[in-house]
């Protein structure tokens, strides 16, 4: 019987120096495909605000959205470790909010852990979650929920002060109890310093090759949106082309009365 990976399995990959593979997914169909590809972690990211809901930012995403998509993913995935994002304003106003909403992602969504964006000021909340038995994942560097404060999506941690702060944040989050840290759009050398300074795995997205693992948004890595082309992205397929071609062919065949063929596709 398939067993779902736990935080201990993720830590074992790290101690064995096996790169950790993480990808986002938001529904049953993609979760099922991730299962077949045997990747380690599925993140139900608040990036669903962009790729599922069509917003420009992750700011509008609600806890109920994450719960809905986590439940769908759980039905398609049986072995990946499951992390769900705490969306904007589900934890920023108070530690009580954070604890309650993190609990909802586990109880109602079925996630094994929650991810939250931010530095050392989150340490008390992470301690409370850890005490309550809720595994937490940190997220530093470009934290998209703060896009308006950053003034856009840009590389973070450049310059000595910013790098020092990011390192201090990473250490504070580890001390507070996170078991995994996502580093988004930070220089490779800084990601390497953080990775070497911590005794928990780091997962990079636009953070170079020296982190303990990598994460990408599934629609991006499958090439489903040719308009989104950040430098860090590698497309492993061109599904946009494949899907548009298939849909156009379907449209043509229906219009020309070639589909359905009454010998093959009818009763
Ligand atoms: O929401 C998300 O998908 C993320 C990843 C890009 C790390 O936070």
What's the structural blueprint in terms of helices and strands?
Blueprint: H1 7-15, E1 20-24, H2 28-37, E2 41-44, H3 48-51, H4 63-76, E3 81-85, H5 95-109, E4 113-117, H6 123-131, E5 136-141, H7 147-150, H8 160-176, E6 180-184, H9 188-197, E7 202-205, E8 213-216, H10 218-221, H11 239-255
Parallel strand pairs: 1-2, 1-8, 2-3, 3-4, 4-5, 5-6, 6-7, 7-8
Helix pairs in contact: 2-4, 4-5, 5-6, 6-8, 8-9
The site of 3-methyl-2-oxobutanoic acid has 12 residues, from strand 6.
Overview of the molecule:
With 267 residues, the chain is an alpha/beta fold. It folds into 2 domains: 7-236, Phosphoenolpyruvate-binding domains (TIM Barrel, Alpha-Beta Barrel), CATH 3.20.20.60; 238-267, no CATH class. The chain has 11 helices and 8 strands. The chain has helices at residues 7-15, 28-37, 48-51, 63-76, 95-109, 123-131, 147-150, 160-176, 188-197, 218-221, 239-255; strands at 20-24, 41-44, 81-85, 113-117, 136-141, 180-184, 202-205, 213-216. The chain has an 8-stranded parallel barrel with strand order 1-2-3-4-5-6-7-8, surrounded by 6 helices. Helix 5 (95-109) links the parallel strand 3 (81-85) and strand 4. 3-methyl-2-oxobutanoic acid (KIV) binds next to strand 6.
Question: What's the tally of helices?
Answer: 11
**Rg over alpha carbons:** 20 Å
Low-confidence stretches: none
What percentage of residues falls in helices of 4 or more residues?
40-55%
Cα-to-Cα separation, first versus last residue: 38 Å
CATH architecture of the largest domain: Alpha-Beta Barrel
CATH topology of the largest domain: TIM Barrel
Q: What is the typical, i.e. mean, pLDDT?
A: 97
User: Biggest sheet: strands, sense, closure?
Assistant: 8 strands, parallel, barrel
CATH homologous superfamily of the largest domain, by name? Phosphoenolpyruvate-binding domains
Provide the list of bound ligands, each named once.
Answer: 3-methyl-2-oxobutanoic acid
The fraction of residues assigned to DSSP E strands is: 5-15%
What best-fitting shape do the alpha-carbon axes yield? globular
Enumerate the strands of the largest sheet in spatial order, edge to edge or round the barrel. Answer: 1-2-3-4-5-6-7-8
Number of domains: 2
- The secondary-structure class comes to alpha/beta
> H/E element string?
HEHEHHEHEHEHHEHEEHH
Tell me the name of the CATH class of the largest domain.
Alpha Beta
Based on DSSP secondary structure assignment, what is the total number of beta strands? 8
């Amino acid at each position: 019987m398939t067993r779902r990976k736990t935080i201990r399995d993720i830590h074992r990959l790290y101690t064995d120096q096996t790169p950790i593979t993480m990808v986002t997914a938001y529904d049953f169909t993609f979760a099922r495909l991730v299962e077949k590809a045997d990747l380690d972690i599925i993140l139900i990211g608040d990036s669903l605000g962009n790729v599922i809901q069509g917003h420009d930012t992750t700011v509008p995403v609600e806890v109920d959205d994450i719960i809905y998509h986590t439940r769908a993913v759980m039905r398609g995935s049986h072995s990946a470790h499951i992390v769900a994002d705490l969306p904007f304003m589900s934890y920023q106003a108070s530690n009580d909010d954070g604890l309650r909403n993190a609990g909802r992602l586990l109880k109602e969504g079925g996630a094994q852990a929650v991810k939250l964006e931010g530095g050392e000021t989150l340490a008390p909340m992470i301690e409370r979650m850890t005490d309550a038995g809720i595994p937490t994942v940190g997220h530093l560097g470009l934290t998209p929920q703060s896009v308006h404060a950053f003034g856009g999506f840009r590389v973070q941690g450049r310059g000595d002060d910013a790098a020092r702060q990011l390192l201090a944040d990473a250490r504070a989050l580890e001390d507070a109890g996170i078991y995994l840290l996502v580093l988004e759009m930070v220089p490779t050398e800084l990601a390497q310093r953080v990775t070497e300074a911590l005794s928990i795995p780091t997962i990079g997205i636009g953070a170079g090759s020296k982190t303990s693992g990598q994460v990408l948004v599934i629609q991006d890595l499958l090439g489903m949106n040719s308009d989104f082309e950040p430098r860090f992205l590698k497309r492993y397929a061109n599904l946009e082309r494949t899907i548009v071609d298939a849909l156009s062919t379907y449209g043509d065949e229906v219009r020309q009365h070639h589909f359905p063929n009454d010998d093959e596709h009818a009763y």
